[in-house]
Design goal:
The chain is mainly alpha-helical. It is built from 15 helices and five strands. Helix 5 runs antiparallel to helix 6 (about 95-110) and helix 7 crosses helix 12.
């Protein structure tokens, strides 16, 4: 009788999984992953499981072998469906599933070499455990960035808590010098948001826009079309590409559109910013895995560590789920209310 009930339970889980357009094979793999998770906590009844157990389990997987890492994303998705859709534990609705899926994707793209035995120390974990940057390390990173454009973008990542794609897509009219704010358009979830800019960044931004204006005037004098605009914007604002306010803050070299034949400037590639940050990290001698996300994480950790309200920080980040912000919190959160841009 008990076996029949258990079999029907897993059948129900398979049905739920397949409702996400998963194949029957994948659904049965998800069953295997959940069973492995439950077996990992033999002395704890299922009804007593919380997000703490899931997080501990996923942290251990993050330090697993490359072969086990291939299943990391599947495990996260399987546990999400199990706890959120099948057993429907309330905490599952606020657990940072997206964070763990993103982490799994990142780790799976990072090749890892076999390591010799170090008496129980897993050397490969140095590349997988998220590592925060201290204030001192952030400044060392900036000091190692010799290219002014990359440095300004990196300072915006840290000073405003932006994503790399949000920085490279900024246009001149997104900077409000009067209010000391940036307008972030079409952020994750397609919602615009406003973030404060540290006073230390306003001067460099003004100087940079002066350089943009000079380059823009030169482009127009040479007969080029100005800045790239999506087709719908070109139709709605036919002269916008030749207006200074529409120019990208961080533009790339001139490019010729194969369809229209127009020569204009697009924004820089996100990969070039990532490469500049990683190179600076090595130049600065920082023995940590560093990328653009590291500076955004540092923005969060340093604000909350200095006593700012986690909900206000989450709003600045454009994060609706506060649990995803808590991943980056370095200590227990207290209630504070003032949030400013980090000194960059």
């Amino acid at each position: 009788m008990a076996n029949d009930i258990l079999a029907r339970f897993w059948d129900y889980f398979i049905v739920k999984t397949k409702s996400y357009n998963m194949s029957d094979y994948t659904a049965r793999q998800y069953v295997r992953h959940v069973k492995a998770y439950i077996k990992h906590f033999p002395d704890l009844r299922l009804k007593h499981h919380t997000g703490n157990e899931v997080e501990k389990y996923l942290q251990q997987m993050a330090l697993a072998s490359q072969q086990e890492m291939l299943e990391f994303t599947e495990v996260v998705e399987a546990l999400k469906i199990f706890f959120q859709d099948v057993v429907r534990f309330p905490w599952a609705g606020t657990f940072p599933w997206t964070y763990w899926c993103d982490l799994a994707s990142t780790l799976q793209q990072t090749p890892r070499q076999p390591q010799p035995d170090r008496g129980g120390f897993n050397a490969s974990s140095m590349d997988t455990v998220p590592q925060r940057l201290s204030h001192c390390e952030v400044q060392k990173l900036f000091s190692a960035m010799n290219e002014p454009l990359s440095l300004l973008m990196a300072r915006l990542l840290y000073g405003c808590g932006l994503r790399a794609k949000e920085v490279i897509r900024l246009r001149v009219f997104d900077v409000d010098f009067t209010e000391g704010k940036l307008l972030i358009r079409n952020a994750d979830g397609s919602r615009d948001r406003i973030v404060p800019v540290a006073d230390e960044l306003l001067g460099p931004l003004r100087d940079h826009i002066i350089n943009i204006e000079i380059l823009f005037a030169e482009d127009l004098a040479r007969g080029f079309a100005g800045v790239y605009l999506p087709a719908e914007l070109q139709e709605k604002y036919p002269n916008a590409s030749r207006e200074l306010r529409w120019q990208y803050l961080f533009s790339a070299d001139l490019q010729t559109d194969s369809q229209t034949g127009k020569t204009w400037r697009h924004h820089v590639e996100e990969s070039s910013l990532e490469e500049a940050i990683q190179l600076a990290g090595m130049e600065a001698g920082l023995n940590k895995k560093i990328d653009a996300r590291s500076l955004r994480d540092a923005f969060v950790a340093h604000l909350i560590d200095s006593g700012h309200d986690i909900y206000a920080v989450g709003k600045l980040l454009g994060e609706e789920d506060i649990s995803s912000v808590m991943i980056m919190v370095p200590r227990p959160v207290q209630d504070y209310f003032t949030v400013e841009s980090n000194t960059a």
